């Protein structure tokens, strides 16, 4: 396997900065990308499928983009919910720099582009929206999800887009088994060879029977 990937902490490939034109949150934007990050030349098909099939964002709270790349999901969330705090998480320093650069260019002050360990342990998330780095390997991917999915707030959802031929269905089965009880895992949509998976964290059940008036 090559030593340099979009999930490398410090890509060795040339930065090769470039400008691309994309539409995010209904706005036509000019953003900066670079070599050594995921899909540097365009909005990738999986993220487009996610955008087409996810519900509106909560009006506020802490949001997580797991594997932010140059920032399309994080920027979309920040533009759509200006009162939210968006945590754009990646291990790739170049990706984090690009997300910060693009957020600054758009005048967004509600994006925190950080490494995983820099998210305070006390932060929980009203939503997670992610095109996760499937090619990092099954074990690493499972470890990532085991770390972040339990940090959903009660009655909140994670929305993940995964290519069908890269194991979306087996990932859905694994999540359903791993995050049970207390969670539900659904296939919310299918399009262009991708699955959109929804993970719902339920509320904490009452510790005592609820009194029914007149019972």
What would the keywords be for this entry?
two-stranded antiparallel ribbon; globular; 31% strand; 215 residues; disordered C terminus; Rossmann fold; seven-stranded mixed sheet
What topology emerges from the helices and strands here?
Elements: E1 18-24, E2 27-33, H1 45-53, E3 60-66, H2 72-80, E4 83-89, H3 93-105, E5 111-114, E6 125-130, H4 138-148, E7 152-163, H5 168-178, E8 183-191, E9 194-201
Parallel strand pairs: 3-4, 3-6, 4-5, 6-7
Antiparallel strand pairs: 1-2, 7-9, 8-9
Structure description:
With 215 residues, this protein is of the alpha/beta class. It has one domain (18-29, 36-201): Rossmann fold, CATH 3.40.50. Helices cover 25% and strands 31% of the residues. The protein contains 5 helices and 9 strands. The strands form 2 sheets. A 7-stranded mixed beta sheet has the order 5-4-3-6-7-9-8, with helices on both faces. Strand 8 (183-191) and strand 9 form a beta hairpin.
């Amino acid at each position: 396997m090559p030593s340099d990937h979009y999930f490398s902490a410090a890509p060795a490939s040339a930065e090769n900065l470039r400008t691309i034109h994309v539409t995010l949150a209904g706005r036509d934007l000019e953003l900066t990308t670079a070599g050594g990050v995921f899909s540097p030349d365009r909005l990738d098909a999986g993220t487009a499928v996610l955008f087409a099939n996810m519900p509106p964002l909560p009006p506020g709270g802490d949001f997580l983009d797991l594997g932010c790349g140059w920032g399309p999901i994080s920027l979309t969330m920040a533009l759509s919910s200006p009162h939210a705090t968006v945590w754009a998480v990646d291990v790739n320093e170049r990706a984090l720099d690009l997300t910060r650069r693009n957020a600054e260019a758009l005048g967004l002050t509600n994006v925190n582009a950080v490494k995983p360990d820099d998210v305070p342990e006390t932060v929980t998330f009203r939503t997670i929206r992610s095109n996760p780095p499937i090619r990092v390997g099954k074990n690493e991917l499972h470890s990532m999800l085991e770390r972040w999915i339990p940090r959903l707030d009660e009655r909140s959802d994670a929305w993940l887009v995964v290519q069908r031929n890269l194991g979306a269905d087996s990932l859905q089965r694994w999540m359903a088994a791993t995050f049970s009880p207390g969670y539900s895992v659904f296939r919310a949509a299918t399009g262009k060879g991708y699955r959109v998976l929804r993970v719902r964290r339920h509320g904490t059940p009452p510790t005592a029977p609820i009194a029914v008036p007149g019972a």
